[in-house]
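ARCHIVE CARD
Drawer: 12
Card no.: 0347
Subject: one protein chain, sequence and derived structure
Cross-reference: see card 0346
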Amino acid sequence: MFIVAVTVFVKPESKEEFIEVSLDNATNTRKEPLNLRFDVLQCIDDPNRFFLYEVYKDESGFIAHKETEHYKRWKEKVAPMMAKDRVGIKHKNIYPDNEKAFISK
């Protein structure tokens, strides 16, 4: 699996719009054939800090995701909402292994 964890700090006045736009992206991403999971998380201690957790069957799924209209739309819309640059960190899974981690679509 290929996992991307993205931390986003949003301007307070953009918080609700960021959530709306991110839910659109997440909902559409879940329809992609190589996406296994997309979580949109909001920090309890800092409600302007968000964490996007994306899981793809492999790196090609993430590469394909970045070419979709919904991702491009999200990226363009959220750019002015960010208090600072987002940080995306790519991971590979150790446990559970790929076969046990998710039921395939």
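Annotation on reverse: The chain has a mean pLDDT of 93. The first strand starts at residue 2 and ends at 9.
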